[in-house]
Design brief:
7-stranded mixed β-sheet; 5 domains; glycosyltransferase activity; alpha/beta; Rossmann fold; about 15% strand; Glyco_trans_1; transferase
Length: about 1050
């Protein structure tokens, strides 16, 4: 079965922290965990977006597309009742859109003073699915005073009761609640099932550590053993009855104990109870009233440590505190009313809550009998095993299955509607193969009177057995048909078929994708379906040619109630062009059979808005904020540019690259025009005009934090939460952890911000992608040392290696003639190149000192430095600019374009990388690609990247002594014997980007099972090359 569950009870402020909200969530969690292969969907209220992410996490592993939201108006001009009724109708229509076999409402009695909207059967034109609801109690109906004194509350409550009576099934939380509802509402007993309740797993016996009980007593001002109550404070809870019963307990017993009442109390109510106790002769410290919220952990400890737990309620639907207390090992006595006897399961532990002497005797006799106390503790631990949310979920699923089977049986025995009211028009495309048509029509006739509409001449197999009508005749007699099925022939176009579906709604069976050459050129439609692939084709071949190549079958036919593929070959074409996820919604007719078409022909509930959602590919959102604001030409910006250039071609079919920028209060905004300008690609006007507008993502989209913008990420964490709540998967690229691992090289504010950024992404990302194995290991170690930064569940961590082809990195500007001239002006001798931002960790100061020694010794060697000045290097920057060898032996190019960088690589004789810490070491790969020998500092990440293809200086590996930088440089100038770097595996940016995509979309995290959503859905299929 497909089961839709309304879980607003776990969203609303009035319920989510109370028993109903927590019980609803716990029951659904167990249903999801033991689903019996039922397809479970969750319906939530968009008004409470703040808890959507926490609910999605609580209900893992339900995928994102199993969560659905509805919006209800909040415009005050509608009035309270108007808002409620409109919201109820919108909710019912939104639930109908899920097309479930059964809908379960966790709590109908919501929305009195908040934005929740619940109802059953309030939209007359909807075909209502079988609907179930949880029944907690009918206490306000049976005890209207004081609950229903207010006429507005009374009206609201009676409307909910009316909905309750329209439910096809009710799940009562106790046998008593079931019996009470059967009697009060005159329900068919078959329609209501008792599923009982469970308690939160936190409630269990306490393994006391030294000093814990003393600390607990001190917190709650308890100086001696105590008798305890917890629960609500409304009249039926009988708090004054409990206090009166306690006051009647013999003084010698009473004065050795406190009476602890744990519940929320206003100051006025607290004073009232204290005065009442005093009037009965109780001492000032006998009654303990914390009055405020008590955390669950403390409540568990209070249960476990109490001398006796007393529950004197006059009327309950279940009596959860009784179960919680038993689970914690407390001895429990309770009122002999409503559901409490079945929960407690101990007749000799019951009392009459309306009689003071009965309460008195029960407390006094139990407290003074150690054997009975021990017996009650043991009994409670055994009795409580009969209750759990897993047991309740099992009973609920049993009830769902039985109710659904009963409904199906009743439907099968109903009188069949006369054939005239089941007439089906089968609209024939051009042409339609008899091998498809004949078995299909034979199957359809089991429920319908079939007429063929289209060109179907005499002599074909079905011509003498079915009426054949012309399209014109069928149009003139449109009211004759109550169902329509479209068959798209091999010569039909999706555009024409879409027009036909608009005139006659119904499902479509596809024999082909249609001939794109017959499409009207529409750049916007092509871009929305195929993204940057469409832009490349338009630039390369023109709009008309692009329209003739790229199919628009799925977006054009999104108005059909269902789509079917005639064979596997066509289905594979859908996978090729639109991705496996989209193709999965178009089943292969021979595989699913005619029954699937018959089901698709059945009337579907009315939807909110259009008849169907427009087909939409998955969006791959890439954060390029810093690159868009100001390309600093750092290594990170080079990575962002390079990956961005490769992504449009490397993303699998069904995915579209969508660049975004972080924008404060607006969250993330579109940045397509920036990418189009960088790539020199055309962009539809409608896409260009949305530049800077907020992005509205959808479930199963992907966000990748490719750029490093820590402050904006920290400031925008609420937007990430909102995206994840909608089902967007989130990943970040981590370039290094140097600010937190080597803070001596960074300003204090950068270190602090980096730690905060790591905490934000650690607690919100589904996966983190490091740019080397070394960084991945550092990341795991940092989170292991900072567990609070991952919010209970550490994200998956993987790594990939960067590319090295500068020409593929959206290179910045042409070569500057002045920069090239300065390279020409270097003195004779060998040239050493260093590439990287001028920062303390990069080792430029050490390198400069080494070159100064060599120059002083008369060694002919030049040093070219390419990189912008960074932080904490003012003195070094000034020294480089003003050096006596500047322009002759020393050349610092502060703002070199990628073209100048490429020329510097070509002219150099050696690449020097002296950095004391890196995430990867991109210049190593770029230098090796040019065949440059490499002289690098001996740190783990450089060993990982360069291996045996570099000469090393500095600290040795495994005790091997290595020369310092000056000796290493002098040796190379004299002998030129550094290992050849040509064997170093340097991959292209296309290959590097494919690695990144495989990690993020297929979730092929190193060391973890490769079981990601994209992999499962086959989204790795690539669109064909044009």
């Amino acid at each position: 079965m497909k089961i839709a569950i309304d879980l607003q009870a776990a969203q609303t402020p009035s319920s989510r922290q109370r028993g109903i909200g927590r019980a609803s969530l716990a029951l659904v969690q167990s249903m999801v965990r033991f689903s019996r292969n039922h397809d479970i969907h969750i319906v939530l209220n968009e008004a409470y977006a703040d808890v959507q992410l926490s609910l999605r996490m609580a209900l893992a592993p339900l995928p994102a597309d199993r969560f659905h939201w509805f919006n209800a108006p909040t415009n005050p001009e509608f009035g309270v009742l108007g808002l409620t009724q409109i919201g109820e109708r919108l909710r019912e229509r939104a639930i109908a859109k899920v097309d479930a076999d059964l809908v379960h409402v966790c709590s109908l009695f919501e929305g009195l003073s908040d934005a929740a909207r619940t109802s059953i059967g309030h939209v007359p034109d909807l075909v209502q699915p079988l609907t179930s609801a949880t029944l907690y109690d009918l206490i306000p109906l049976l005890r209207p005073d004081p609950y229903l004194v207010n006429p507005d509350v009374r009206s609201w409550y009676y409307r909910k009761v009316a909905s309750l009576k329209r439910a096809g099934l009710l799940l009562a939380i106790s046998d008593y609640a079931r019996t009470e509802a059967i009697d009060a509402l005159e329900l068919d007993p078959e329609r209501i099932v008792s599923i009982s309740c469970g308690a939160d797993p936190i409630f269990k016996p306490v393994d006391w550590q030294p000093g814990e009980q003393e600390a607990l007593r001190a917190t709650y001002a308890l100086t001696r053993p105590y008798v305890m109550y917890t629960g609500g404070d409304d009249e039926r809870k009988n708090l004054k009855g409990l206090i009166a019963g306690w006051a009647a307990v013999p003084a010698e017993l009473r004065t050795r104990h406190h009476l602890l009442i744990v519940c929320r109390l206003s100051d006025v109510r607290r004073l009232e109870l204290q005065q009442y106790a005093s009037s009965l002769g109780m001492g000032p410290d006998e009654l303990v009233l914390p009055g405020a919220f008590v955390p669950d952990q403390d409540l568990r400890s209070l249960y476990a440590a109490c001398a006796l737990f007393v529950f004197p309620s006059l009327h309950e639907g279940f009596g959860l505190p009784v179960l919680e207390a038993m689970l914690c090992g407390a001895p429990v006595i309770a009122a002999d009313t409503s559901s409490l006897p079945e929960v407690l399961g101990r007749p000799d532990a019951l009392f009459d809550p309306k009689r003071t002497e009965s309460i008195r005797d029960a407390i006094a006799n139990t407290l003074s009998d150690p054997a009975k106390l021990a017996s009650l503790r043991e009994h409670g631990l055994i009795q409580s095993r009969k209750f759990s949310w897993d047991i309740s979920a099992d009973r609920a699923l049993d009830a769902f299955e039985m109710a659904y089977a009963r409904e199906q049986f009743e439907a099968s025995t109903r009188v069949v509607v006369p054939a005239d009211n089941r007439r089906l028009a089968v609209m024939l495309g051009t042409p339609v193969a008899d091998s498809l048509l004949t078995p299909l029509v034979e199957g359809l006739r089991s429920r319908h009177e079939v007429e063929l509409v289209g060109d179907y001449p005499a002599g074909r197999p079905l011509a003498d057995r079915f009426d054949v009508r012309s399209p014109a005749w069928a149009d003139a007699h449109a009211s004759r048909y109550v169902r329509t099925l479209h068959l798209m022939g091999t010569d039909d176009t999706p555009t024409a078929m879409a027009d036909a579906v608009a005139r006659r709604p119904g499902p479509v069976v596809l024999q082909s994708l249609g001939d794109p050459a017959l499409n009207k050129p529409d750049f916007e439609a092509l871009f929305r379906a195929h993204g940057w692939r469409a832009s490349r084709l338009v630039k390369k071949q023109g709009l008309a040619s692009a329209a003739a190549i790229l199919p628009l079958t799925l977006p054009q036919l999104s108005g059909a109630s269902a789509l079917f593929a005639a064979d596997n070959t066509l289905h594979q074409q859908l996978v090729t062009w639109f991705g496996a996820r989209a193709a999965a919604a178009v089943p292969v007719l021979p595989l699913v059979g005619v029954d699937a078409v018959l089901d698709a022909l059945e009337p579907r509930p009315a939807l909110v808005g259009p008849a169907a959602e427009v087909w939409r590919p998955n969006h791959f959102y890439v954060d390029i904020t810093m690159l868009a604001r100001h390309d600093l030409r750092t290594g990170i910006q080079r990575v962002v540019r390079s990956v961005l250039a490769a992504l449009p071609e490397q993303l699998p079919a069904g995915w579209i690259l969508a660049p975004v920028c972080a924008h404060g209060l607006h969250g993330y905004v579109h940045a397509d025009a920036l990418l189009a300008d960088w790539l020199d690609l055309p962009l539809p006007d409608s896409i260009r005009t949305r530049e800077g507008q907020p992005v509205v993502p959808a479930a199963d989209d992907q966000f990748l934090g490719l750029d490093w913008v820590p402050q904006l990420t920290v400031d925008g964490q609420a937007h990430l939460d909102a995206w994840r709540a909608k089902g967007v998967r989130v990943a970040f690229v981590v370039y290094d952890l140097l600010p937190v691992l080597a803070p001596q090289f960074f300003p204090a504010h950068v270190t602090a911000l980096s730690a905060e950024w790591l905490s934000v992404i650690g607690s919100r990302a589904d996966g983190l992608v490091a740019i080397s194995n070394a960084v991945a290991d550092e990341l795991r170690a940092w989170y292991a040392a900072h567990p609070a930064a991952v919010n209970k569940k550490q994200p998956a961590i993987g790594w990939f290696h960067l590319g090295a082809d500068l020409a593929a990195s959206l290179p910045t500007t042409e070569a500057d003639p002045a920069a090239l001239a300065s390279l020409d002006g270097l003195a004779a001798g060998k040239t050493v190149l260093s590439v990287g931002t001028i920062e303390p960790r990069k080792g430029h100061d050490e390198a400069l000192a080494s070159f100064e020694r060599l120059w002083a010794d008369g060694v002919d060697v030049n040093w070219v430095v390419i990189g912008q000045p960074g932080w904490q290097t003012e003195a070094l920057s000034a020294k480089l600019r003003e050096h006596s060898q500047s322009g002759r032996r020393l050349l610092w190019l502060e703002n070199a374009s990628d073209a100048v960088l490429a020329e510097a690589y070509r002219r150099a004789d050696l690449l020097l990388v002296a950095s004391q810490g890196e995430g990867f070491g991109l210049p190593l790969i770029e230098g090796a690609r040019q065949g440059l020998p490499l002289l690098v500092r001996d740190i783990p990440v450089f060993r990982e990247v360069a291996g045996d293809h570099a000469a090393y200086f500095g600290s040795g590996q495994e005790g091997a002594a290595l020369p310092d930088l000056t000796r290493a440089l002098a040796h190379w100038v004299k002998h030129a014997d550094a290992p050849a770097s040509t064997g170093l595996a340097a991959q292209s940016w296309a290959a590097s980007t494919r690695e990144l995509i495989s990690l993020v979309l297929d979730q092929r995290w190193q060391g973890l099972p490769a079981a990601g959503a994209a992999q499962q859905q086959g989204q790795q299929a690539q669109a064909p090359q044009e």
